[in-house]
Here is the input.
Amino acid sequence: MIQGTMSNAGKSFLVAGLCRIMKQDGYKVAPFKSQNMALNSFITKEGLEMGRAQVMQAEAAGISPMVCMNPVLLKPTNHTGSQVIVNGEVLGNMSARDYFAYKKQLIPDIMKAFRKLEEYADIIVIEGAGSPAEINLKENDIVNMGLAKLVDAPVLLVGDIDRGGVFAQLLGTLMLLTEEEKARVKGLIINKFRGDKTILDPGISMLEEKGMVPVTGVVPYMDLALEDEDSLTERFEKKAVSCIDIAVIRYPMISNFTDFNVFEQRKEVSVRYVTGVSELKHPDMIILPGSKNTMGDLKWMRQNGLEAEVKKMAETIPVIGICGGYQMLGEKISDPDGIEEGGTIRGMELLPVATMIKETKIRRQVKGKLPALNGLFTGLSGLEYTGYEISIWVNLFFWIMRTLKLYRTPG
Here is the structure.
């Protein structure tokens, strides 16, 4: 099991790396994360929803993603509550306090998923969440040391040196563990190291002396385009503008923003995540991404002036909406059952579409062929696409990717 000193320490990356190494060594290996909190999700062939980090790790292991790799997925709907997804299907919405009291009831589901993986794999590489030293969350823990105890897993603890303070991270985490928990930690990993490792060696010796746990690896910093598990991503900080400039509206509950990673593979394209009018500038395209709280995020755009500016720019440049973003572009959004915020809200009125939010959630992979199109999108006519559907809206990942053909620079 890989645990971290904090979120974004590199757990997902290291699990993927170990899965790949063990596959190359001839083992059947599978990733596992009992509970994932992320607004980026994936739909399996069976139409079940799971975290994207485990999908990437399954790919590294050379196997198809299975929902048993991530039996519990939390998708935040606001700052104090989440939609709870168990075994790929929606259980319901819960406040943080209600879920904290309820989560131990999910242990049978977690163990059933783990046992199913055990039937297939020689080795299971488990990913923790956040930090095992979050002492306010240790009671009834089902994702860090609590899970390690349930499945009797040895633990490797990873810290991020790129952000600074890695020695305090690792030692502080060890100090806050019980003796039984600390005994499970078989090694420490320093991740994202830049420079000459020999300069680090004295610190490693002191770390091993004070922590009484060996440092089993120093992983160099690698600039990899991996899918992010949550909103703690450096992608949101990129502001450079390239020849083709795409602005993605970063609302508070943005979801599945990993869809846009494909653009980053092209040096002539910049993807900027903007939160205010001053950051919008003069893009070639604006994308309204998915949202886990469509009505709330539309209100946020309305309050900070982004809605008015996007509507103005829609007269001269393409504005594309995906999932919740597509709903925002319509005439109105209704929520009669109170799934999000209840009531009805006026949309941006750029498309003749009305949305009614219902409790039933449709999840499936989809494919098809685009019909004959006119104007800006003529170049897309007849192209085949593959993607996935969550609720009633098709994710147009490949469809948008193809639009780059319309923006080639001369020569």
Observations:
- The first strand starts at residue 2 and ends at 4.
- DSSP finds 13 helices and 24 strands in the chain.
